[in-house]
Amino acid sequence: MLNLTIASVAETLYFAVARDTRIVSADYVSKIGATKENTIFEGYTPLNPTYPDTIFDGFIELDVSKPINPQLMYIILSSRMYSRFYFEPDKYGEYIAFYDNLKSNKAIMKEFKPVEKKESLIDIINIVNNIQTITGFLRGGYSGPTIIVYKY
């Protein structure tokens, strides 16, 4: 028996229709000339789409103004990485300070945001939320993490 729910349709559309931010941003990254040689990037970004990785080793003493690579032109962040640190501020204060410094001192070139997927403990609200998610995908919205490309 076929059991189709709004949630299952939304999940199917997530994989069938929604374009992932890592794929969409890859075209932009290529267009601007960002490469593994001139860019510091986290995991779950177009230059490393499938594995976790941080950017902290790319800087001396966690100082955004002291990159190890003198050829640095771009920094690419993924919400799938930086949100982990913001989730535990007591544990990762120095990393959060690094991200905040980066955000305050470097210009965003482009940001790729996914369709927001909201969840609730109330089923009727989840139905409405899933319809909004499906509509967002059908209108060309993205899935995946938020990708932020900074000019260094």
Task: Calculate Rg over CA atoms.
Answer: 18 Å
Mean pLDDT: 86
The amount of helix comes to 40-55%
Q: Which H/E pattern describes the elements?
A: HEHEEHHEHEE
- Structural class designation: alpha/beta
Strand order of the largest sheet: 2-3-6-4
How many structural domains?
Answer: 1
Shape by Cα distribution: globular
User: How many DSSP-defined strands?
Assistant: 6
Major sheet, described briefly?
Answer: 4 strands, mixed
Distance between the termini: 55 Å
Number of helices: 5
Properties at a glance:
152 residues, alpha/beta, four-stranded mixed sheet
Account of the 3D structure:
It contains 5 helices and 6 strands, in the order αβαββααβαββ. It has helices at 6-16, 21-32, 79-87, 93-105, 123-138; strands at residues 19-20, 39-41, 74-78, 107-112, 142-143, 147-151. The model has no long low-confidence stretch (mean pLDDT 86). It has one domain. Strands 2-3-6-4 form a 4-stranded mixed beta sheet. Strands 1-5 form a two-stranded parallel ribbon. The radius of gyration is 18 Å and the shape is globular. By secondary structure, the protein is α/β, with parallel strands linked by helices. Helices cover 40% and strands 15% of the residues.
Quick overview of this protein structure:
The protein is of the alpha/beta class. It has helices at residues 6-16, 21-32, 79-87, 93-105, 123-138, and strands spanning 19-20, 39-41, 74-78, 107-112, 142-143, 147-151. The chain has one domain.
Give a topology summary:
Layout lengths: L5 H11 L2 E2 H12 L6 E3 L32 E5 H9 L5 H13 L1 E6 L10 H16 L3 E2 L3 E5 L1
Parallel strand pairs: 1-5, 2-3
Antiparallel strand pairs: 3-6, 4-6
Helix pairs in contact: 1-5
